[in-house]
Amino acid sequence: MAEEEKAVLLTQAAYDKLKEELAWREGDYRDEITERIATARAEGDLSENGGYQAAREEQGKNEGRINELTVKLRNAKILKAPPKGKVGNGSLVTLELAGKEVQYVLGARDIAVATDYEVISPESPIGAAIMGAKAGSTVTYKTPTGREISVTIKEAKPLK
């Protein structure tokens, strides 16, 4: 029995970037790899032809990425970030952590393709701790080593 596919939460910008990558991989890049394989094949003995082997390996990686992107885009749900002041998937959060101010986007790592901010997962210890919190609040989370760390949410706003 096939495992149920999980929804992939993406911003519209991330969805568009992944769709653009898929089109490139299915089109121009696939054609380029096919040409390299044909050129290497024309050189003769394939068993000792490094160019042929490398092109075939690249073809396999490309086809794997095409399959991965196809599944992600099929299961994509465009997320609607919570309103300003509340932390949730798609929020750009400014945190005070260990005396420093840092900014992160809370969400799936696939969002990273469309932003210059670091992305933290809602399932990570810090992500789970800040999820649903409001700007101005201080939350505590446990690191994998068992250490407790406090973090203050300075600002939360929807990622544009």
From TrEMBL:
Residues 39-66 are annotated as: Disordered. It comes from the Bacteria. Residues 9-78 form the Transcription elongation factor GreA/GreB N-terminal domain. Residues 55-66 have a biased composition (Basic and acidic residues). Keywords: DNA-binding, Elongation factor, Protein biosynthesis, Transcription, Transcription regulation. Residues 83-157 form the Transcription elongation factor GreA/GreB C-terminal domain. Pfam families: GreA_GreB (PF01272), GreA_GreB_N (PF03449). GO terms for molecular function: DNA binding; RNA polymerase binding; translation elongation factor activity. GO terms for biological process: DNA-templated transcription elongation; regulation of DNA-templated transcription elongation. Gene3D superfamilies: Transcription elongation factor, GreA/GreB, C-terminal domain, Transcription elongation factor, GreA/GreB, N-terminal domain. Necessary for efficient RNA polymerase transcription elongation past template-encoded arresting sites. The arresting sites in DNA have the property of trapping a certain fraction of elongating RNA polymerases that pass through, resulting in locked ternary complexes. Cleavage of the nascent transcript by cleavage factors such as GreA or GreB allows the resumption of elongation from the new 3'terminus. GreA releases sequences of 2 to 3 nucleotides. Belongs to the GreA/GreB family. This is Transcription elongation factor GreA. The lineage of its organism: Bacteria, Bacillati, Actinomycetota, Actinomycetes, Bifidobacteriales.
